[in-house]
Design a protein that fits this description.
CATH architecture: Alpha-Beta Barrel
Radius of gyration: 17 Å
Number of helices: 11
CATH topology: TIM Barrel
CATH class: Alpha Beta
Number of domains: 1
Strand content: 15-25%
Shape: globular
Order of helices and strands: EHHHEHHEHEHEEEHEHEEEHEH
Structural class: alpha/beta
Distance between the termini: 35 Å
């Protein structure tokens, strides 16, 4: 396996679930895109390939919301659940063969505990669990995904400093690099802790890069400036489109506000891994890639 090194800017993909929905899949499900690991794996390959074709260097797997507990509710035993989690890495690898290129990295997605509850609590944190309970939940997922040999582990959309600490400790012995990205609001995590404290976790040898994702594009640059004051390690930035989610009506509201100009500013602020999250499509990633390559565009 190649060593994942962030010694040059890399373009991340966009919203995998958004792309799958655009392909006609209904994902209003507790497993979200992870359901398609069993039901339509070829469609996941096609979505990854679309982002590679658009200019992404990194594919993020359909494992964000996957858990042993979630699969058990669908009648899968632990062996079957583990097989599907490993499949998420295999499908992203296959997409790199469908759309070959110089950089075809696979990031295994590890979402927060709240993501598996499918109730929006990944944007609040503080689930009432002890650090040991969080470790018992996350470690088997991490170990299973590590068995599939992804290039990097994406500890993403983390709302809470305590959960981030548990994750960083859990990945320390796995032998696979990890990036850690928080979901934020202003200068604090969604759980309310100062970002200066959150980004201090970059001091761990287990953390290859640190930053934010699944947040408002306007919050990215100030957060990156806080992160740069905390560490010299590469920074990560992949926000949402800027649209808002109306939970009552189950609809997106407002207009997209992610722009290539923003992506250039994030790169100037130290972001070496730049892309998008929810509602960010392949054409948006193409614009980001072109902006990073051509500072005059």
């Amino acid at each position: 396996m190649r060593e994942f090194r962030v010694d040059q800017p890399l373009v991340l993909d966009g919203g995998l679930a958004t792309e799958l929905e655009a392909m006609g899949h209904e994902l209003a499900d507790a497993l979200w895109s992870a359901r398609l690991l069993a039901d339509a794996p070829e469609e996941i390959v096609a979505a990854h390939a679309a982002f590679y074709r658009a200019g992404a260097d990194v594919a993020t797997t359909a494992s964000y919301q996957a858990s042993f507990e979630g699969f058990a509710e669908r009648g899968l035993d632990r062996a079957g659940a583990a097989r599907l989690m490993r499949r998420s890495v295999e499908l992203a690898r296959l997409a790199g063969e469908v759309e070959p290129g110089e950089h075809r990295w696979v990031a295994a997605s590890i979402g927060p505990y709240g993501a598996t509850l499918a109730d929006g609590s990944e944007y609040r944190g503080d689930y009432g669990l002890t650090p040991q309970q969080l470790r018992e939940f996350h470690l088997p997922r991490l170990e299973t995904l590590a068995e599939a040999a992804p290039d990097v582990l994406a500890l993403e959309t983390i709302p809470d400093l305590e959960e981030a600490r548990v994750l960083v400790e859990a990945v320390a012995g796995l032998g696979i690099p990890a990036w850690l990205s928080f979901t934020v609001e202003g200068d604090r995590t969604r759980g309310g802790q100062p970002l200066s404290e959150a980004f201090a976790l970059a001091e761990s040898d287990a953390v290859t890069a640190i930053g934010i994702n699944c947040s408002d594009p306007e919050d990215v640059l100030p957060a990156l400036e806080i992160a740069r004051a905390a560490t010299e390690k590469p920074l990560v930035a992949y926000p949402n489109s800027g649209e808002g989610w109306d939970a009552e009506h189950h609809a997106w509201t407002g207009d997209p506000r992610l722009s290539p100009r923003q992506a250039r500013r994030w790169r100037e602020a130290g972001a070496m891994l730049v892309g998008g999250c929810c509602r960010v499509r392949p054409e948006d990633i193409t614009a980001v890639a072109e902006a990073l390559l051509d500072p005059e565009s």
